[in-house]
TrEMBL record:
GO cellular component term, pick one: catenin complex
Keyword Metal-binding among UniProt keywords: yes
Keyword Cytoplasm attached: no
Family matches, as Pfam families: CADH_Y-type_LIR (PF01049), Cadherin (PF00028)
Annotated Cadherin domain residues: 69-149, 150-258, 259-373, 374-478, 514-580
Keywords: Calcium, Cell adhesion, Cell junction, Cell membrane, Glycoprotein, Membrane, Metal-binding, Repeat, Signal, Transmembrane, Transmembrane helix
Described purpose of this protein according to its UniProt entry: Cadherins are calcium-dependent cell adhesion proteins.
Membrane topology, as annotated: Single-pass type I membrane protein
Protein name: Cadherin-12
GO molecular function: beta-catenin binding; cadherin binding; calcium ion binding
Organism annotation: Cyprinus carpio
Cellular localization per UniProt: Cell junction, Adherens junction; Cell membrane
Phylogenetic placement of the source organism: Eukaryota, Metazoa, Chordata, Craniata, Vertebrata
GO biological process: adherens junction organization; calcium-dependent cell-cell adhesion via plasma membrane cell adhesion molecules; cell migration; cell morphogenesis; cell-cell adhesion mediated by cadherin; cell-cell junction assembly; homophilic cell adhesion via plasma membrane adhesion molecules; morphogenesis of an epithelium
Length: 764
């Protein structure tokens, strides 16, 4: 029922009294036939809200409501106007009657309500009859939206073997309908696909495990379909679905298992240590770390020859050779291999032991090998006087293969020292082919090669060390020439000297020898010796060795009789004994005495020459001119005679040093020099100068004396005296003076005499 209100404006809505749809349709039909009752409504019955159904599908505009003012007398003098949201495009009003219509279908989910303003004005004057009023047209919801899963499809995972009721995941659906009006937005969840493994809570959407002992190795992936339905799940409600992919995570609930109980492997006997023999594998139905398998060899007889390595990537066990193999010694090995999980889950230990064992049989394959010597090396001995052709020793090698091939021997020639021996190719005996000499080689290393007759490419080598034994062919001798003394008051049994030897047998006139560790002591057999009666004893010492054949030699020990103190210290002996109590030889004493006499003579000559030089220097000049003082006793050219000598050498001290260096460079021992005294370039100049002088003066006197002034103390040029130069340079070679003519005969005779004396000294 619709009412009409007087001013202020009273609003009448088609559903303001919340009439049912049937009453609303009847109202529309009654209005269509023009039958509409109008009556006065109190001001308390004023509505400022209209309702319009969403999704209206009728052909005519949908009636919303009616506006009426109390000032409207029905004479069409009042005009109704409408303004606000959607006016003209969505809503329209009949100006004379105030009826409001919706021109098109509305969607509450797009816009739930509209705010409009209404006013009544005078048709003639256009002035408002009442103040403008605001009202709302609300779109009434219908169930036109199904529930939707905004985040689907979903993924989830749980451990396998999870108990019933274990939480998996939670899903949520949304409904765009009005949750405050009816049951359009009340959602109920249900499972369409995935039973009996999982369940869903109808109100919360939580998914849980519904079946116990779900095994990943049986089935790993599950697809569950969940439905969300509005209207509380009643018939006619709208529904939406989504998919949840559930994966079972692996746990270590399966032990490793070998695919077979026996593994057969093969390997060559010549394979080096560390070679791969083969692989074994135990399968574990788990995945990831739960499927990792560790392999080990069960201790036993055959397992000591091998080892096993676990590969984490392939989950295989690689058998590795640990020791060298020999087909002739052992042809097969059998051992057990154990496979176990590295990581255990204690929740599943009750299912049984998480390990498995298998048997591995390894067959050793025969390989043809070179001969094998009975020893790694051989050592032999033979005497150095062993005749050629005599057998020294023998080596033995054999073929350990099944064929047992004969072996032939040979010597590998690498060094000259190994050419002394040869070997019998069949018997393997080594014999001497050249004479041996222990003094040259004490031992010989011979390399013997053994070769298989059936396969000459296969050979092996061994080293034979042959030690050469010494043959007693040299007699022993005293290590030194012994000379000593004995006191006149020596006691019986007193040791006077020790001799180094091998075997000593001494007995001579009061003296005897005793042996002790290759040394012998000469001792007295009586207590009194007289020097005046016999001043020296020559004691023969027989030295013997212990070799075969026995060798011996005789040496002499010189013993002088001397006077000693009571404590044994020497007082007097003959001249040689007093000066040299340690027993120097007579020749050495004579040489020393000759040297002393020569030194005394040289000292006397040197003193005389110095005096003569000093006298001539004082007489040669009265003025102290130190630059260049030259005194001539002959009719020479004086200072202007520049060809007599090199004046630059006297003024330049460096010339003396250079000459000295040239003299040092000249070899000292050159016996074949018969025509030159010096070997440098200056010797040629001196020779030319001397030869020129000989050609100019062929008449006596042949000698001339040139005296140089004394250079003073500390002169860098040092002394220019030829006498002193001869003393300071005794090694000058003057043997060629004889070839220089009659002028140098006297000088050559002097130096020849000195040379003879020097040779005697050297020989002594």
């Amino acid at each position: 029922e619709h009412g009409v209100a007087h001013l202020p404006l009273s609003w009448r809505s088609a559903n303001s009294c919340r009439m049912g749809k049937e009453q609303y349709r009847n109202m529309l039909a009654h209005r269509k036939h023009g039958m509409m009752g109008v009556h006065r409504v109190k001001r308390g019955w004023v509505w400022n809200q209209f309702f319009v159904l969403e999704e209206y599908m009728g052909s005519d505009p949908q009636y919303v409501g009616k506006l009426h003012s109390d000032l409207d007398k029905g004479n069409s003098m009042v005009k109704y106007t409408l303004s606000g949201e959607g006016v003209g495009s969505i809503f329209t009003i009949e100006p004379s009657t105030g009826d409001i219509h919706a021109l098109r279908s509305l969607d509450r989910e797009e816009k739930p309500y509209y705010t409009l303003r209404a006013q009544a004005v005078d048709v003639l004057t256009g002035r408002p009859l009442e103040p403008e009023s605001e009202f709302i047209i609300k779109v009434q919801d219908i169930n036109d939206n199904e529930p939707r899963f905004l985040e689907g499809p979903y993924s989830a995972s749980i451990p396998e073997m999870s108990p019933v009721g274990s939480y998996v995941t939670q899903i949520t659906a949304t409904d765009a309908d009005d949750p405050t009006y009816g049951n359009s937005a009340r959602i109920v969840y249900s499972i369409l696909h995935g039973q009996p493994y999982f369940s869903v809570d109808p109100k919360t959407g939580i998914i849980r495990v519904a079946l116990p002992n779900m095994d990943r190795e049986v089935k790993e992936m599950y697809q569950v379909v969940i439905q969300a339905k509005d209207m509380g799940g009643q018939l006619g409600g709208l529904a939406g679905t989504t998919t949840i992919n559930i994966t079972l995570r692996d746990v270590n609930d399966n032990p490793p298992r070998f695919s077979k109980s026996i593994f057969h492997l093969r390997i060559l006997e010549t394979s080096p240590v560390g070679s791969s023999v083969g692989r074994v594998k135990a399968h574990d139905l788990d995945s990831g770390k739960n499927a990792e398998v560790e392999y080990s060899i069960v201790p036993g007889d055959g397992g000591s020859m091998f080892d096993i390595y676990s590969n984490k990537n392939t989950h295989e066990g690689t058998v590795i050779l640990k020791k060298c193999l020999d087909y002739e010694t052992r042809k097969a090995y059998t051992f057990k291999v154990e496979a176990s999980n590295a990581v255990l889950d204690h929740r599943f230990l009750h299912l049984g032991p998480f390990k498995d064992t298998a048997t591995v049989k390894v067959n050793v394959l025969d390989v043809e090998e070179p001969p094998v010597f009975s020893r790694l090396s051989y050592s032999m001995e033979t005497y150095e006087d062993t005749p050629v052709g005599i057998i020294v020793g023998a080596v033995t090698a054999e073929d350990l293969d099944v064929g047992n091939s004969p072996v032939r021997y040979s010597v590998e020639w690498r060094k000259d020292s190994e050419n002394h021996f040869d070997i019998d190719p069949v018997e393997g005996t080594l014999s001497v082919i050249e004479a041996l000499d222990r003094e040259r080689h004490t031992e010989h290393n011979v390399t013997v090669v053994a070769t298989k007759v059936n396969n000459p490419l296969l050979s092996s080598k061994v080293t034979v060390t042959i030690k050469v034994l010494d043959v007693n062919e040299f007699p022993p001798e005293l290590a030194f020439v012994y000379e000593t003394f004995v006191c006149e008051n020596a006691k019986v049994g007193q040791v006077i000297v020790l001799c180094v030897c091998v075997c000593v047998c001494v007995q001579f006139d009061g003296l005897m020898g005793s042996i002790s560790d290759n040394t012998a002591g000469v001792v007295t057999r009586r207590g009194v010796f007289r020097r005046l009666e016999q001043s020296m004893y020559l004691v023969p010492v027989v030295v013997e060795d212990g070799g075969y054949p026995l060798q011996s030699s005789t040496g002499m020990v010189s013993v002088r009789v001397c006077t000693c103190n009571t404590d044994g210290s020497l007082l007097s002996c003959n001249a040689e004994a007093v000066i040299f109590p340690m027993g120097l030889s007579t020749g050495a004493l004579m040489a020393i005495m000759l040297c002393i006499v020569i030194l005394l003579v040289m000292a006397v000559l040197y003193t005389g020459l110095r005096k003569h030089k000093k006298k001539d220097t004082l007489m040669s000049s009265k003025e102290d001119i130190r630059d260049n003082v030259i005194h001539y006793d002959d009719e020479g050219g004086g200072e202007e005679d520049t060809q007599a000598f090199d004046i630059g050498t006297l003024r330049n001290p460096k010339g003396i040093k250079e000459t000295a260096q040239l003299q040092k460079i000249r070899p000292e021992d050159e016996p074949n020099r018969a025509s030159a005294c010096m070997s440098n370039e200056d010797s040629e100049d001196i020779r030319a100068y001397i030869h020129h002088c000989l050609l100019e003066n062929s008449s006596p006197p042949y000698d001339s004396l040139v005296t140089y002034a004394y250079e003073g103390e500390g002169s860098v040029a040092e002394s220019l005296s030829s006498i002193e130069s001869w003393v300071l340079e005794p090694k000058e070679d003057y043997r060629n003076l004889c070839d220089w003519g009659p002028r140098f005969k006297t000088l050559a005779g002097i130096f020849k005499e000195h040379e003879c004396k020097d040779m005697e000294k050297t020989e002594n």
